[in-house]
Known about the structure:
The chain is mainly beta.
Amino acid sequence: xxxxxxxxxxxxxxxxxxxxxxxxxxxxxxxxxxxxxxxxxxxxxxxxxxxxxxxxxxxxxxxxxxxxxxxxxxxxxxxxxxxxxxxxxxxxxxxxxxxxxxxxxxxxxxxxxxxxxxxxxxxxxxxxxxxxxxxxxxxxxxxxxxxxxxxxxxxxxxxxxxxxxxxxxxxxxxxxxxxxxxxxxxxxxxxxxxxxxxxxxxxxxxxxxxxxxxxxxxxxxxxxxxxxxxxxxxxxxxxxxxxxxxxxxxxxxxxxxxxxxxxxxxxxxxxxxxxxxxxxxxxxxxxxxxxxxxxxxxxxxxxxxxxxxxxxxxxxxxxxxxxxxxxxxxxxxxxxxxxxxxxxxxxxxxxxxxxxxxxxxxxxxxxxxxxxxxxxxxxxxxxxxxxxxxxxxxxxxxxxxxxxxxxxxxxxxxxxxxxxxxxxxxxxxxxxxxxxxxxxxxxxxxxxxxxxxxxxxxxxxxxxxxxxxxxxxxx
Length: 475
């Protein structure tokens, strides 16, 4: 039996290869180039493998670029079935491959390489288990929706089932996201993840259904589920929920320009996150995005500064009608409570229209003045000490603060009570000490009530009003 198998493989090697290539060409519209084909009959006897080296599959565009390349592709085929003329694939192993799908500005693609098959798909079924992909890279470029994604994987194990024109796919392994770029925003840049995913592709209805799948980044897990349909329009409805997340994990999703500013802040405690992406993806439309986030009994600190927020709680939400245009985006931070260096506070904040921000907020609580400088440095102020009890609110467009003729349109109200405040103005090295009293805001004006203290060695007591105080402080 072994001699017969060996003889069959040896004498009919060319026939097997020719038959295999002939069957492949029946399904493909574009040329396939193979550097070398080898057959091994002993590694998995009675199955034998066909090893194709230096594989090149041309894309379907007029430019004749590479759609797919691989250093090695190995198929496992049963010897007895091959003897009977049935070349059914039992296993698949791919090494050092690259896939380059492209959608051009006119909506055409370069991956229509399979010929239309004239058969009843209901009578066709197969199951491919343990498809091994090593050192894989996918470079996806969509000029219609301005998307450019580059992902790679050192090892990915996939199983594919097919029945009733529906593909069932399961994958598990590591993924490295080089970039996930939508228009000018780059998400998930240079991030390592592990993936356990399961989804189906209905080739008749042109819809992808993502079953609850897990994407892990560090110690955090994100459950992803939803649908993507592409029959008449590109419609997406995907939800992701985070588990065991912290600030650093959430920042890994946002563009680098924003994440760099907050990268040195650390968090501990229960930070939760959930996002939904829904709508049409086209050259003129972008899906709606909504994010719910918050924390319970969490703490936040900075690597350099000494201040720390503890027992923090907040409820937050972010929404934008477009993933690529934040002109109508809104962010809300509600019921923000906590302790800044042991001093309790509560606050609320909203911002609308990221291009021309309209902000509103309020803050109430006692703050150690040094905590403000330690947690968020103030320009030209150093060695600040003392206590500030604040009960203030504000609203208006930030853009009005750029011009002295419009700065008074920013509305502010409330009171700042100062207790033994000391600080030095660093530019001129002028010291203020023992400041006590209250400052009351009335829009652009500032009322001073029994403010006493020392400027260098001279003492003073102030009462009165400063008209256009905010404009003066800014300009």
